[in-house]
TrEMBL record, chain A:
Family, per entry: Belongs to the ABC transporter superfamily.
PANTHER family cross-referenced by the UniProt entry: ABC TRANSPORTER, ATP-BINDING PROTEIN
Organism: Actinacidiphila rubida
Organism ancestry: Bacteria, Bacillati, Actinomycetota, Actinomycetes, Kitasatosporales
Protein name (Swiss-Prot/TrEMBL): ABC-2 type transport system ATP-binding protein
Keyword annotations of the record: ATP-binding, Nucleotide-binding, Transport
Cited Gene3D superfamilies: P-loop containing nucleotide triphosphate hydrolases (3.40.50.300)
UniProt xrefs under Pfam families: ABC_tran
GO molecular function, a single term: ATP binding
Xref: InterPro entries: AAA+_ATPase (IPR003593), ABC_transporter-like_ATP-bd (IPR003439), P-loop_NTPase (IPR027417)
From TrEMBL, chain B:
Protein name: ABC-2 family transporter protein
Organism lineage string: Bacteria, Bacillati, Actinomycetota, Actinomycetes, Kitasatosporales
Transmembrane segments: 43-69, 89-110, 131-152, 172-196, 203-224, 253-274
Keyword Transmembrane assigned: yes
Keywords associated with the record: Membrane, Transmembrane, Transmembrane helix
Top-level division of the source organism's lineage: Bacteria
This protein's record includes keyword Transport: no
Amino acid sequence: MIEAHGLTKRYGERAAVTDLSFTVRPGVVTGFLGPNGAGKSTTMRMILGLDAPTSGSVTVNGKAYAAHRAPLHEVGAMLEARAIHTGRTAYNHLLAMAATTGIPRSRVDEVVDVVGLRQVARKRVGGFSLGMGQRLGIASALLGDPATLVLDEPVNGLDPEGILWIRTLLKDLAAEGRTVLLSSHLMSEMALTAEHLIVIGRGRLIADTSVEEFVTGAAGTSVRVRTDDADQLRRLLAGPDVSVASAERSVLEVTGLSSDRIGRIAADAGIALAELTPQQASLEEAFMELTRDAVEYQAPVREKEGQAA
Amino acid sequence: MTTTTIPVEPVAQAPAPAPRGHVTQIRVLYSEWIKLRTLRSTFFTLLTAMVALIGLGALFSEFTASHWASMPAGERAHFDPAQTSLRGYFLAQLAVGVLGVLMISGEYATGMIRSTLAAVPRRLPVLWAKSALFAAVVWVLTTASALVAFLLGQALMSSHHLGVSLGDPGVLRVVLGTGLYLTVVGLLGVAIGALIRNTAGGIAALFGLLLIIPVLGEALPSSWGNHVNQWLPSNAGQSLLTLHHEAHTLQPWTGFAVFCLYGVVALAGAAFLLKRRDA
Ligand SMILES: Nc1ncnc2c1ncn2[C@@H]1O[C@H](COP(=O)(O)OP(=O)(O)OP(=O)(O)O)[C@@H](O)[C@H]1O
Ligand SMILES: [Mg+2]
């Protein structure tokens, strides 16, 4: 369980994270989403006590991360940009990490096998490919068999097989009752891996919701209608909050009315419908819609500056 | 009667317990030991320090011995046989200092520091472990090398009846002092590496402090310089390394204590900032 309360981080003038509050629950994979520079990595560093919040707080399993006596057993972390010395072999890196908390060599062997690095474990990390580096990062995170996992863009650089592997691994870990938080800007990937989503933009919370709700709740959900009486139906549907687009003569894309309403209006007018399909916004579209709002959120500030000038 | 289905909340259950251990200073020390011995740079740099200490000592001793006959009387009067065989310390301090800086700056350069501090979130045990470990390794190796350099050098000079023995007054102090001086140089390197967090900057700062500032001090008018210069870090530390006490230098152990004080202050500053700064 990770709980953030009013988490704020400034680097000089620049606010990286602003008043962020959320809870990451055990038992499900939680996706942490946001466009580049949204503040995901910064938030994760604050969770791990690497960066101190300017204000607010974040706890892991009820305590600040640094207050845990056995941190590697509480949280397994994989940070952005390999946080690993390039001059050391993968195995020695894990051995040194394990030693801080008395994890035996046998466990190091175990995690090396879990992530499939046995072949290259004795090679220096400097020569690793992006994907191998990611696997080593995941091995590091798993060392202490932690109750909570915090992974910054773990699928970045993995091949399709690797992506499938990590998806399954994370779901299994969550199913065992662990808390799993992973960041990404790949919406499509999150749809397959995560059950819950925390979306941020420009350092602010935009959404804290299940993947399902996120998609259905996103604006822009339209209904596709096919009928021979398209022109007549179009007139009937017209209203202040309704927009109707038409790509083909007999096809309407209706926004602002549910498929139920459209069906009833058509039936009342005796119009036969050949097709009536709610078009779910893809996760990608929903995401862009939401982050566009985040940009708009900033606009009033700029206006104020403009007035002052 | 209707039964309402309560949505099943995912239940947090403790995962299968791994061997659960707390982070202790001893464990961090062991971890740092693994880190130190698994980097090639450690071996190359320490080897350089040892070769410099022994090789240059032998070279100077041999050179002095063979030129003794043609040496002016003034130079003969200032001749310090113990220090001649240990001259290599000057080069050895470069190697030891660089490796000291790298102990921490190397982790910042690669990002490893984040893994390190995530594993030891209290942070200070890392600094203490790195300092203690590096000091111990440097002390053992350079003290042994200094002994070898001394014995070898004296053997080379004894053919001209110039040598001294470990039992002569002050000689043991100079020989052991070499290892002690280099150890503190290493500690200053560790502290400066933690303060500056950048390899090039750290090395520049360390050698600016140890090598450049004393040279600048020489340029001071002697009415000031004679008072100020003896308190500069390397001048203070090196007063342990001369057999005969020279004018305007501190007494050997006073000087070394002052040098240690610089090290302590630098480490305290490093500890303070390590706790406060973002990783
Ligand atoms: N150490 C730092 N010093 C100054 N600014 C920083 C620092 N770290 C992050 N920032 C700024 O804070 C903002 C958030 O950065 P962060 O790396 O957390 O974003 P992110 O969501 O992880 O982005 P990405 O998807 O590209 O990884 C950015 O504008 C970045 O420039
Ligand atoms: Mg990031």
